[in-house]
Predict the 3D structure of the following.
Amino acid sequence: MSIGQEARPKIRFGEAFRYWVRLGFINFGGPAGQIAMMHRDLVDRNRWIAEGDFLRALNFCMLLPGPEAQQLATYIGWRLHGIRGGLMAGLWFILPSVFVLLALSWVVAAHGDVPLVTSLFYGIQPVVVAIVAEAVIRIGRRTLRHWVLFTMAAGAFVAIYAFRLPFPLIVLTAALLGLTLSRWWPRAFAPGESHNVREGNTPQLGASTGEYPKFVRTIKVLAICIGLWLVPVSALVLWRGFESVYFQEASFFTIAAFVTFGGAYAVLSFVAQAAVNVYGWLNPGEMVRGLALAESTPGPLIMVTQYVGFMGAWRYHGDLPPLVSGTIGALTVTYVTFLPSFMFIFAGAPYIEALAKSQRLQSALVGVTASVVGVILNLGVFFGTHVLLPSGHLDLFALALGVASFIVLSRLHWQVPVVVLLGAAIGVLWTVGRTTLGL
């Protein structure tokens, strides 16, 4: 019997389709808000899936690289209606944001120097710095519960900030350290409470479903996903060559999709360093703007990678119109970013469930999570330097707005989209006021 089969009614495909479409347009609030929204709708209100099954699915997704909320939607869709249900849920979770971000990316690329747009982002950028700072503190408090973990976080920050070590190498090293150091400090590397969507519920990591996938089926899923990657990427290579920005973006973001342990903020540091300093797809200010757009639109935060793909292909458009090139780059990046997420769910969830019982795996994941705090801190320093010290001198307006934004986010718990919009409005008012007064 399928997970939760006895606890839920038969759900019509059309009814589920309408829900997933609606969710795609309203899933603001980042992973925590999106997961809470699905829990309220699917467990409490509609009773489509049992509480324990929802939490078990969530635990699977927390162990995987990639956007956990989108993977959770894919998993639940799959449990309700098989592969077609998973595709429907996972695709509609991101489709609205694909088109919204395409339009906004074009505005930034084509009209970023227009005074109104410039003033909007002048107010938004300090808010982004506050968002990242709040994330560092929030995740750090939950994660760094032992001095060994605090030391690992500090080491990860130094490794990526001072020595520019690659993010995948940092993740691998942290995992190995977690395995090794857990022998001496077992309590430090014992798994804490799993991510929870309702107070009082404690998910049981590794609860078995009693089902084990057939190996042949798993190989088929992997082969199909590999083919789905090879065909369009090969077509891009035949059309534009290996040196083209499209192949560079496809290969880089495919790697990024497999190392996004720790959530979107962790991988953003990896993406920002490479996109700005290695490939030159965009400048630091444009990267900050992209995060602001992703924070204030529906869909996973990792959709900021689509914006990076658009800006890179727009800048290196070659003989194509910039808009055409940017659109190809954006869609390519989105495709290779989310394809692995579907592969992980359709092929790997049962195996991940079995692995979740391993104490050694849990120790490795605790080590990775600790290092992620240092990586996110690097992202905050990267953004903060370019926003607060744009020309080597402190911008007092940006500092004041950043501090105020941090306070309302961390103390008053305002919603991120609201703070971003207020920041944009304040930026316009400040710019207009200075212009009027001739300052």
Remarks:
- The longest helix spans residues 68-111.
- The mean pLDDT is 83.
- Residues 96-437 form one domain.
- The chain has 16 helices and no strands.
